[in-house]
Amino acid sequence: MQTAHTKEELRGLLASMRGRRIVFVPTMGALHAGHASLLHQARALAGEQGIVVSSIFLNPVQFDNAGDLSTYPQTPDADLTLCKECGVDVVFMPTPDVMYCADRSMVMEENHLSTVLCGASRPGHFAGVCLVVCKLFNLVQPTDAIFGKKDYQQLAILRRMVRDLDIPVVLHGAEIVREEDGLALSSRNVRLLPQHRAAAPQIYGALRTAARDYAAGASAEEVRASVIDTLSAIDGVRIDYAELVDAETLHAPACDHRMALLAVAAWFGDVRLIDNIELVRA
Ligand code: AMP
Prior knowledge:
The protein has helices spanning 7-15, 33-46, 66-70, 76-85, 96-99, 117-121, 125-140, 152-164, 194-199, 202-215, 220-232; strands at residues 2-4, 22-27, 51-56, 90-92, 144-148, 170-174, 237-246, 260-268, 271-279. It is of the alpha/beta class. It has two domains: 2-174, HUPs (Rossmann fold), CATH 3.40.50; 187-276, Pantoate--beta-alanine Ligase, Chain: A,domain 2. A hairpin with a 2-residue loop joins strand 8 (260-268) and strand 9 (271-279). The N and C termini lie far apart (46 Å). Adenosine monophosphate binds at residues 27-28, 34-35, 37-38, 147-148, 150-151, 174, 176-177, 184-187.
């Protein structure tokens, strides 16, 4: 495994690999089994002849909350060990100064899918995600990239970016990896207080109940209300949103003949957790 810290080093490492399949997994570090799952899928997709590239970059531009950025866990040594174990060929680990010029003046704006769900409560977040992913795509020039469905809205917006800007990369969505008790793995989970960690699996419990009820014919509003009831009964929890939307447009209403998405964001103390589940009528 080789590591690049600058754009020049990255270009140098990749120069001799052009023409091969390059599968890219961008991350912000503090890697866990969810990231490992993406990296394993990347290795399988690349095959023996292909290249797996990962980036570890805590992108300041996508943080709408300074406290969240300053407390975001960083574990670079463990991250590199995990990348190696997962068969990554090249890791790109730039600093913000390497990624961004001080007088940067380009912005990336998506103005339909980004207006709802997390986009409504985190102004500028998806513009920051699109900016960094577009830059990383230009640097790595991957044939394929893998993103987790944990960040479902992010994946939908990046699919839109790739489509609307004709970026020559195929995006793949990876299933959510969970703890045994159902909590979706997240780098932020380590910041949960013990009582919030104990209660957090109720998110997935509520989503699963909702999926079962929806399949059995419950209305979108009934399903949404049941999730809100469950989560608002937990001490110290504040719901940011719980929405049932079309899985592609991310807007309501969900149509019975298309995949729907039930997406939730809630504050457990000062940690904001997100989760979602795809829904279908039986
Ligand atoms: P992050 O480091 O949070 O930016 O995440 C990097 C990539 O890993 C994104 O595509 C995430 O959607 C994905 N990811 C994070 N947590 C999980 C999880 N629990 N299951 C599957 N993918 C995940």
